[in-house]
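User: Hey, my collaborator sent me this sequence without any context and asked if I could get a structure. I don't really work with proteins. Can you help?
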Amino acid sequence: MKNVTVKDVMTHLVVSFHPDDPIIEAARRLARNRISGGPVVEDGRVVGMVSEADLIAAVMPPVKVEHGASVLEFLTMLARAKPHPKAHGVTVNEVMTPIVIQIGPEASIWEAASLMERRGVKRLPVVDEEDQLVGLISRADLVRSMARDDEDIRTDVLEAVAVLGGENFEDLQVTCTDGVVTLRGGADRRSTKEIATELASRVAGVVEVVDHLMAEYDDRKTAVPISIDHLPNWPDSATAGEQIRH
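Assistant: No problem. I've predicted the 3D structure and written it out in structure-token form, which is a compact way to encode the shape of the chain:
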């Protein structure tokens, strides 16, 4: 799955905050959306990150909380609680973390996972070349990208291979079990067979491609090398996988 990028799995509809937002309102929005934090944005650019821990520390007086309480329980308690006197007038800007760790949409999910692990963060703002916020990627997004339903993977493999043209295959069969995709049937030539297996390997969630395709004609010595990067665009989800067994 090394070819899966951040843009393939990130959340596009981001719950964000402005530096001037009151922290009580920020707490209510986090609780309402059942999330533990989000980016602070000004003029389209991320200027900080605010989490439930930041808000709780600023608003709540010291309280005894049961070990293992969930984020939602914390936020619900915060949203309903009577604010600490010193919290009146406090804004997100005063409690947020101003040092922001960002990532680009073209980075791989492995780069995102490594960055989260090294910096000890749960989420990363995704910004374009002009530092404008385009999405957010969290640990949950990474986990979901690695645990797709087999039928969804199979459908995406069929759509990816379809760019080669149905007339170039005979009785094409695609199955998927636990992320392992098997291709059976016939291809018009060796190059078509190889490109089909490569396209299948790039679908999100594919961990291996087992190639049982039969090529009618071996064009390895006569064909001009073909790069799949010059093929028509296939669905965004058609990107992943790396192990191909022949």
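In plain terms: The longest helix spans residues 150-161. You can pass these tokens on to your collaborator as they are.
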